[in-house]
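Q: How do we represent a protein-ligand complex in a form that can be generated token by token?
A: Start from the inputs.
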Amino acid sequence: MKAKVKKDTCIGCGACTTIADQIFQIGDDGLAEVINPTEAEKVQEIPEEERENVMDAAESCPTGAIEVIE
Ligand code: SF4
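Then emit the structure tokens for the protein with iron/sulfur cluster bound:
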């Protein structure tokens, strides 16, 4: 499972950084991003123990900006 933030959709509300604070952070541009992305496309491989938090964050995002890739 991987996750990324679609910057063009994110409004920087910070919900995901509260729900999954080990995965998402607010970047210098005021928008969310994954912490320590493993690929150039800013995708992060999600550890097993964070999967539920990431799913919660994706469902809670008001603009649907979190993309989860199975
Ligand atoms: S919850 Fe969605 S809109 Fe809010 S900061 Fe995270 S990705 Fe952006």
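The chain has one domain: 2-69. The radius of gyration is 10 Å.
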